[in-house]
Amino acid sequence: MATDTGLTTSTQVPSTAPAGAKPFPPFDMANFSSMFIWLVLSFGLLYLLMSRVALPRVEGILHARLSKISGDIGEASRKRAEADQAAAEYQRTLADARGNAQSVAQEAYARLAAETEAKRHALEAELAAKLAASEAQIEATKAKAMSNVGQIAQEAAAAIVEHITGKPADAEAIAAAIAKSRK
After folding, report:
1. Structure confidence by residue, pLDDT tens digits, 74-106
2. Which of 9, 88, 102, 175 has the most CB atoms around it within 10 Å of its CB?
């Protein structure tokens, strides 16, 4: 519910200036030509100042910055090449060290294998000598035992013949029979 207070609303701003007052100077058409001349002079002076002083300084700064960036990129490329070269040298050194370690290990293996082979041959020779000595001892014991076997066989045969016949046996006949059986 609207109440009427007697006021009117509009979008115009009420003027408080008296009826014969002059308009605002920038909008006064009488001042347009002098203001336009000052605008052109100010713009020309500003353009001259910018083209002779400010823009060359900015251009110098941009060129200096570009050369600094280019120099830094060049330096970074050089350092990267040095790093790549150092990495390649490291890899070569590492490969050489691995090769040397492998050759040292192979030499040690070959040396130990030769030492082991020499010890094995020495041990085999020692065992062969002991085996030959043992075989000789066995042969000697066997020969001695076999020489006793003949005598034991003669005595046993004589005892058997005497036991069966009751007469003492002929020692020469028993020795001939034993010698005949050995052949």
Report:
1. 999 999 999 999 999 999 999 999 999 999 999
2. 175
Which pLDDT value is given to residue 163? 85
Q: Give me the DSSP letters along the chain.
A: -----S----SSPPP-S-TTPPPPGGG-GGGHHHHHHHHHHHHHHHHHHIIIIIHHHHHHHHHHHHHHHHHHHHHHHHHHHHHHHHHHHHHHHHHHHHHHHHHHHHHHHHHHHHHHHHHHHHHHHHHHHHHHHHHHHHHHHHHHHHHHHHHHHHHHHHHHHHHHHSSPPPHHHHHHHHHHHH-
Residue boundaries of the structural domains of the chain: 48-182
